[in-house]
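Can't paste images in this forum, so I'm doing it all in text. The chain is below; anyone willing to post the predicted C-alpha cells underneath?
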Amino acid sequence: MTNTNTNNSNDELGHSNSSSSTDLLKSIPFFAFEVNHDSLFEDSKALLAQVFPEWSAEDLLMTQCKDGITNKLIQCANKRVGTTVLIRAYGKHTEVIIDRNQELINMAALTRLGMCPPLYARFQNGLVYGYIPGTVPKPEEMGNSQWAPLIAKRLAEWGQVQLPSDHSPQLFPILRRWMQDIPQTYANKRANDIFHKNFSHRALADELDFLHDLLLKVESPAVFSHNDLLSGNIIMSETKDKVSFIDYEYATYNYRGFDIANHFNEYAGFECDYSRYPAKEAQLEWFKVYLGQANLDSSPESLEKMYVEVCHFQLASHFYWGVWGLVQASISDIDFDYMDYARMRFEEYYKNKAQLLNWLYDNETKK
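Text version of the structure:
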C-alpha cells in the first residue's frame, strides 16, 4: 500500500471548461493508494488522511455497508465537521465486467448536473464520494404510490442526460464481451456442477443471437441509462418529494426499454420473487409519469407501444444479469451465490421468452 498523491488537483468538477472524457477524468483528484479488502477500516482511515488532511482519525465513525454484491463499501462519518463520505473499494477482478473509466466519467458529469453526490477522489482500486441521506425502499415497495412516480420522473430525467461518451446502446457489446469471460471450468465444484447441469457455452451464444435478432425489431430509443436500478440504489430525500439514484458503475447509453424493464425486474429482489413484477395497469400508470416528465406523447397508443417495448426488454434484463452472475461466480470474493442467482435469472428468462413468443404468435394469428 502506498500513499503518494500523484494528481491532487483542487479544481472542482463543475469548473472545467471542457466536456471531453479526458478532461472529466483529469478533474478528479487521484491518490496512488490501495484499500485492501482484508484491512478495510485501517486502510480507509489512512486514505482519508490523504484526501482530507485536516480531518482527525479520532473524529471518524466507520461502518461497513454489506448490502452490495459487487464492491466493498465503507461509510465514514466525521462527527466533528458533520460530513459523511463513502469509500468504495472495487470488488476483485470487477474490471472484467465494469468499465471503471466510464464510471468515473458518469459520476463527474452527473455531479456537474447536480444529479449525484460530489466525487472527492479516486484511488488505485476505488472512489471516495459523498453520502446522500434519505430512505431506501424495500424491493416490494418500489411499485407503490409513494415511490413509483418519483422513480419514473427521475429515470425520465436520466434519459435526457448528455454525456461525452458513445451514445449507441451498449447492451449487446457488453453482453458479447462478458460472454467471453465465462470460464470453461469453475474452481468451485458446486458452481461447476450447477453450470454444466444448466448451461453450455454454445447454447448461451445461440440464445444471445436469438435475443439480438428479436430486439432489433423493437423500437426503443437510446438514452442514458442506469442499468442497475435495484432498491438499494434508490434514495428518497428527507423531504420525501424526490429520489436520487446512486452507484453508476453499470450506467451507459442503452435502450430505454432495457432500463425500465430492468427496474421492474428488480421488484423481485435478490430472492427473485417475480410475482412482484408490476401488472400491465401499474406499468401503464408508470409510463404516463415517465413520458410526461420527458415531454413525450402519452396517448393510449403510445402507452401500449411502450408496454410492448418493455415486455421485450424484460428478457434482455434477465439475460444480462444471468451472464453477469456466471462471470462473477468465477472472479468474486464476496459472499454471494452468484451461480445460483444466474440459474434463477435464466430460469425466468426462458419462462418469459415462452410467454412473449406465445403472445406474439397469438397477436399474429389475430391479424
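The longest strand covers residues 72-78. The chain has two domains: 4-130, 139-366.
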